[in-house]
Design goal:
Strand content: 25-35%
Strand order of the largest sheet: 12-11-10-9-13
CATH architecture of the largest domain: 2-Layer Sandwich
Largest sheet: 5 strands, antiparallel
Radius of gyration: 20 Å
CATH class of the largest domain: Alpha Beta
Shape: globular
Order of helices and strands: HEEHEEEEHEHEEEEEE
Oligomer: single chain
Distance between the termini: 31 Å
Length: 211
Amino acid sequence: MGLQEIFPGFRMSTNVADGAVGVSAAPAAESENKHWYIAVVGNRTERLCARRLADKGFESYVASQWEIRHWANGRKKRVERLVLRARVFVRATEKDRLAIVACLPYIYRFVTDPSRRPSPDAWAPVAVIPDRELALFRQMLGQEEYPVTLEESHVHYDIGDRVRVKSGKLAGLEGVVNLQDKAESSRLHVSLDLLGCAIVEIDKHFLEKIG
């Protein structure tokens, strides 16, 4: 499972080199059942949250990259830029994630993985990042020559767009976008041809534009 699959609305571009940047407090041995999760935290509290997690014995990582900033007066400075805002990677067992990490007041929730949702109306499971995937991501951020950016996808849905459900139990059905859910930016309200006037709420990840 890659980061692009977990964030289907983003794309990543860079060249790979060596090194790594971030906040980390390497834990002890027991790693057999530990996984990397992505905690959603307050904006501009990423490093503070990572330090608090480290104090509790959890390995944590803030996605950032060093770069050289240039000013009009010729001044330049090496600065650290956050690549994923309001997100902190946490390595823990599922038991610890539920019993301890999920109860910490500075963690709002965990990023879910829409690509693993069994159907459009089902809950998406919590995203799990494989060790190798995160190691490669950290490797990308460790070099300064080629900036890593996460940019919004150009795929955009407007009211009236014709779409097709490409996966899930409603796969193959076609319809028209009515509106976007204000409470959840990744979900659209779609009037499916087969259902007439009935409107179905579907995650963008399950749709594709047609026509």
